[in-house]
Amino acid sequence: MADVRSFLKRKNIEFSARRYGIDALGAMAQGLFCSLLIGTIVRTLGQQLGMPFLSDIGSYAMAVSGSAMAVAIGCALQAPPMVIFSLAAVGWAANAEGGAGGPLAVLIIAIVAAECGKAVSKETKVDILVTPAVTILVGVALSKWIAPPIGTAAQAFGLVIDEATKLQPFLMGVAVSVLVGVALTLPISSAAICSVLGLTGLAGGAALAGCCAQMVGFAVMSFRENGWGGLVSQGLGTSMLQMPNIVKNPRVWTAPIVTSAITGPVATCVFRLEMNGAPINSGMGTCGLCGPIGVWTGWLAPSEDALARGAAAISPTPFDWLGLLLIAIVLPAALCPLVNLLCRKLGWVRDGDLTLR
Fold first, then answer.
1. Distance CA 305, CA 294 (A)
2. For 209, which of 109, 228, 263, 329 could close a Cys bridge (C-beta 3.0–4.6 Å)?
3. What span, in angstroms and rounded, lies between the C-alpha atoms of 324 and 266?
4. What is the overall mean pLDDT for the chain?
5. How many CB atoms lie within 10 A of CB 272?
6. Which residues contact 33 (CB under 8 A, 6 or more apart)?
7. E strand or H helix at 194, and its extent?
8. What are the angstrom distances between the C-alpha of 159 and each of 60, 156, 163, 196, 354?
9. How far apart are CA 324 and CA 321, in angstroms?
10. SS3 (DSSP) at 275
């Protein structure tokens, strides 16, 4: 057993929730952002502006999403270069075989393939053959074997959430908004979670509401401590910057969570706000305005995940635009500081508790 532990340490193979559930998942979201998400945005712009060149660029970026995710995961696991390069084939295979649940299949299979590749790396004199061969053979074999059922399971679970939100828009609006919003602020990836589950439609709208409540809420309610720099870094960057303050005083999280519990059902019950762009947009909030952009692209050209669940392109009405503006920006900016003011009066939050350090 000691020899095994010594070998794993030497190979930098660490079986931990942090490495796989935070580092790898977060990296996967970045890979997805740099391929599928940006590709969807560029392709939609090309389609709407009548510029086929832009549409082609977007399509090329979208086509390599599996490879981008797997390579990003390999980097997060600190794999050697040849393992990382080999993961491009693994990611492509896992994403293709996983269907609608491709991102989850990529996450699981790329982790296994990367760790196997790391285990054999530089252990033989023909490393240039052994390392890529092991990485690709393990990854592609697993893709053929387990990616389809993983994809089916992820799709089914996402469909359950979608149908439950349609049947119980108020309760599910609260639940999805709060849970995905909390995931966005925690050091895990809400974007990757939404992508894995294929979260679109009303459920995607609720997820968007929760993420915006966290980002815009924290940005506005901490303005007097952090100024314009904090407003931009949290409102267009990430509310994860507040995690050190949340650890010190968990009550500072009260206002954004309460706000998300309000805006979620407002999105699902009042405005019937659907996020039918790429599912990753549902978990992005106002980060680079990707959440609102996802709603817009979903109106004009629904993603494959959304189309599979019955979505169709629409011409947005002023009511649709009003709903998006209120849910993404106005309500979080108004409600969160008000709830936080009550928290301050109760002595739960004090000056300096929200200062970014």
1. 13
2. 263
3. 11
4. 90
5. 14
6. 191, 280, 284, 290
7. helix 190-197
8. 28, 5, 6, 12, 38
9. 5
10. strand
Structure confidence at residue 100 (pLDDT): 66
Residue with tokens 């549902």: 282
Lowest-confidence pick of 35-49, 192-206, 249-263: 35-49
What is d(CA 281, CA 208) in angstroms, rounded to the nearest whole number?
A: 8
Helices then strands, each counted (H, E), the chain: 19, 0
135's enclosing H/E stretch is: helix 127-167
Asked if residue 131 lies in contact with residue 83, where contact means CB atoms within 8 angstroms, the answer is yes
Helix (H, G, I), strand (E, B) or coil at 104: helix
CA 115 to the chain's CA centroid: 23
Q: What is the CB neighbour count within 10 angstroms for residue 30? A: 19
Q: Specify the pLDDT at position 298.
A: 92
Please list, in sequence order, all residues whose beta carbon lies within 8 angstroms of the beta carbon of residue 109, skipping any fewer than 6 positions away: 70, 90, 94, 139, 142, 143, 146, 147
The CB-side HSE value for 217 (13 A sphere, CA atoms) comes to 34
230 is written with which tokens? 């904090």
Task: Give the mean model confidence (pLDDT) for residues 47-56.
Answer: 85
Q: Which of 21-30, 103-112, 282-291 has the highest mean pLDDT?
A: 103-112
User: Helices 201-221 & 223-232, crossing angle to 10 degrees?
Assistant: 130
What are the structure tokens assigned to 12, written together?
């930098």
CB 103 within 8 A of CB 69: yes
Task: State pTM to two decimals.
Answer: 0.77
Of 214, 100, 231, nearest to 162 by C-alpha is 100
What confidence score (pLDDT) does residue 196 get? 80
The CA distance from 160 to 189, in Å, is 21
- In order of 27, 192, 222, 260, 283, the CA distances from 179 in angstroms are 21, 14, 22, 9, 11
Q: Is the pLDDT of residue 201 over 80?
A: yes
Please identify which residue in the block is written with the tokens 């952090």. 226
